[in-house]
Each structure stands twice: as C-alpha cells, then as structure tokens.
Design a protein that fits this description.
Blueprint: E1 4-7, E2 10-13, H1 26-46, H2 51-61, H3 71-76, E3 78-82, E4 87-88, H4 91-108, H5 114-135, H6 142-147, E5 149-153
Antiparallel strand pairs: 1-2, 3-4, 3-5
Helix pairs in contact: 1-2, 2-4, 4-5
C-alpha cells in the first residue's frame, strides 16, 4: 500500500510507486522540441539585443506555460507531468528539466567562443540527453530526473494510473447493467 502526504490542494504520491505512465513517443517529443526551438529562434531574431535572453527564458519556462505543455508539446499532444503530484508541470519544474538546454544558450554568450561553444554544448548535451531518454524505460532524461517529471502522451489523464489499456469504469461485483423495456398489451 502506498503512503501519501495530504496537503490542502496537493496530493504527494510516494516515490515507491514509480511512474504509472507509459513512455511517450520519442518522435512526438522530438517534434515538440523542434517547434519550441523554432519559436525560441524567432524570439531571438525578432527582439534585438535582448533576443538571446528572451529565447533562453522561453526555453526554460515553456513547459510550465499551459498546464505542463509548451506550445510545441500542445501541438504534438504530449505533456510534462510532475510525478510526485501527478499534475502538469509548473514553471519551477520546467526550469529544472530544461536547465541542460539553458546551459547551451549560456555557452553561446561566451565572448570569442560563442558559436563554437554553442555547437559543442548542443552536441554534447544533446547526445547525453537523447541517449538517456532512449535507454530509460520511462523515457526520462537528466532534466526529468532533476525535476521529477516525465513527458507523457497528452491523452493520459493526470492522476490516473495507466496499465497499458483504457480501463472501464469499475462496477460492484456481480452487478449487471440491466435495461428494461416496457411493453404494453393491447
């Protein structure tokens, strides 16, 4: 039996349970990340000298925007869930899980090494995160471990354990749904 901590408006699930959610499609996750990177690039290009900071802030906070969905995740139907409460990720969770990618942007701000540092950081961190995500049974990457989050299919209802199939509503044992038709004798 699991132990839970009850707080007003917050249900914390014990870590013993692990993740009840299946691994989200890596293709959907990659597409969502690509959309978010395009949005960050547009922000970078269109906001002048502050563009790099605005792009960085977007990438850090994006997953906490729409109840655990960035615009890219919303478009591709995936969602970030904070596992201890099984709710959509908040801004704090988004910053923690996207910190490795934020580091890549910060590396690009280095004088004289900017673009080279960006490319090197993107390759190293991108490969580490991709391999970790690919090999993990729940699809967790380093950022997810730090933030205690998981990317799930957006159709998965937060707070409902998933067993791999859609469960029917529970009924009491030995109860059948009976429909009666009234007939009239004429």
């Amino acid at each position: 039996m699991s132990t839970t901590t009850q707080r007003p408006g917050l249900r914390v699930v014990s870590e013993e349970e692990g993740s009840p959610y299946p691994k989200a499609s890596l293709l959907l996750r990659g597409g969502a990340r690509l959309v978010d990177l395009v949005i960050a690039w547009v922000l970078f290009q269109s906001t002048g000298p502050a563009g790099i900071v605005i792009a960085l802030l977007y990438l850090l906070f994006a997953d906490g925007m729409i109840q655990g969905q960035s615009p890219g995740k919303k478009l591709f139907g995936v969602k970030v869930v904070y596992l201890p409460t099984r709710q959509g990720a908040r801004h704090r969770d988004s910053v923690l899980r996207n910190a490795p990618f934020g580091l890549v942007i910060i590396l690009s701000m280095m004088p004289e090494l900017g673009f080279k540092a960006f490319v090197a950081g993107a390759v190293v961190i991108g490969v580490i995160e991709a391999v970790k995500c690919w090999r993990d049974p729940d699809g967790l990457r380093l950022g997810d471990l730090w933030a205690q989050t998981q990317v799930v299919d957006g159709k998965v209802v937060a707070g409902q354990p998933q067993t791999g199939s859609i469960a029917e509503p529970a009924r009491a044992p030995a109860r059948l749904k009976v429909t009666t038709e009234k007939t009239t004798d004429a």
